[in-house]
Amino acid sequence: MKCILDSTVFFTDYPVNGECYTTPSVVEELLDLTSKCRYDQLADAGLTVRSPSAQELARVKEAARISGDLPVISGTDCDVLALAGELGATIFTDDFAIQNIAAAMGISVQPLRQRAAKKRVWKYRCTGCGRYFKTDGECPVCGSNIKRKLK
After folding, report:
1. CB within 8 A of 46, min separation 6: which ones?
2. What's the CA gap between 36 and 53, in Å, rounded?
């Protein structure tokens, strides 16, 4: 089985088997000694560090925009999702936004220490006038904040 490892794997002792991959942006997030040692351990066992294609990154960002998760995902999250889509692999993560976008893209996910996230669809509502919008920000009608909430 092909596995894409998110940063969470390197902060835990979660067992991973198979053909494992991660992205350079995940490796950059590993700052403490424990996660660096875990990375070295997995690298010795055959972990491959690889960047996703620009085409797959664009597909991830579009899926995140449609699901409403674009404002909350990081570049690293996009990289992990894109690599999983590119390789047809399972993502090992506890990040709910990654899990939500992965579900929308048909990518399988293996949660580590948390329960699996349910698929969410977000909507954006003005806190002042109550109107609905496609993104968060400032309401063009009343000037109040537009906040993300569950549909």
Report:
1. 19, 20
2. 26
